[in-house]
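pinned: reference chain
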Amino acid sequence: MPVKFGVGEAVKSNIDTYVVEAVLSQGAFAHAAKAKAASKSAGSVFLKRYFSPTATLPWYVAFVEHQQELKRRITTNDALRQYCYGFIDFFEGTQGRAAKTFHQVFEFIDNGKALSKFIEELQKQGPAAQWDQRVRFARVMMMGIAALHAQKIVHTDLKPDNLLLIPNPHSAGEYHLKVIDLDWAIFSDKRAPWHDAQGYVGTPMYMSPEHVANKCPDERSDVFTCGLMLGELLANGHPFAKVSDYAVAIKRGEHTPIRLAQAVPKVENTAFLEALLNRALDPDPAKRPTAVELRDALFGRGAASEASPAVPAPEVAPTPKPTPARPSPEPLPSNGQDKTVELLFEGRKVLSMRIDTAVGRQLLKPVHADAQFAADTQFRIHRSPTKEWQVSPVAGTPNETLIDGAPLTSPVLLRSGMRIGIGNSAKGIEKMQLIVQLA
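pinned: its structure tokens
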């Protein structure tokens, strides 16, 4: 694994030198730091040093080329550029005797707040609180996702934590949107370099049925996640919050029906909008609307502009012509390794994962009140280069991640019966004791 960043470290590329100001975090794939670019007189940049993929993998070169293509599609499109963080630099470098390592430099956003924080704050005030604000967030979110999809870019790991809302300095109460964590975004018109090597990134409670089935996600998978977030913003909360097994429920479409908390300004046909939001959560991706259809409906355009006197159930509401289905690639091979990681709490299964997963407070909140001791991202469960499941720590968490009572300081291979907790090993404190089960 590449060495971690150190404060004061100078990292050189062909176009600039970046001096580390602060070490931010360690994720499942990269170290992150706040840095100062030598060419800039003011401001900071967001610097990432990847330890996965490594230069020894056969698809590493293709991964670098994929990142170049992602940058090109975003930076050359005026409509999309405003919704994504700025791509500043990417390069390969070495640290001491370490192997060649991939780096990326992004715009540093210091005045934004994750959508998850807004949702958390708004939910404390009740579903109808600050309605105009909720509607603005919903609209700007779908504008941004529609712009991504127009360039054939699929985020694959959409969730409230990956959408930053930045106050508009020229208009009180309005916000700009920045979509972040695009490192593992894919193209709908080109297969990802890692397709036959590892799974696609996603987050439990925000993943699509395609993620759960271990199939390649596409634009319709992003739409599914948008439906979840729109339910949190505009209706009665996360549509699958009350289910006991998220992976099973999303395959069956067993969610709480989305019902708008209030009428949406400019939208005369509330029934159509509600139907569209519920269709976004259909287990069959061919039946889901597009991001453009959701965006237009939120602004009262299209069929949503036609008034109706009643609010019928979603299944009998007017249905726009569905987007033709694109065949999904076959499930990724398991290479003989365990396919699923299950986490048990007090004898019951609370999480089931088949893809790389960030585990933190929001994911654990439905499990037990002790989730308050977890950070936004407490630890990550993901595949090793040999496709075995492992758990990795995240730097900077207030409390330690514990493995069988001992602090987790580096990636550890998972085994059935292993205990993952959160606490302070020195004081003998251990909360959220989760038992690993490999199936």
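why pinned: The longest strand covers residues 17-26. The CA atoms of residues 32 and 48 lie 5 Å apart.
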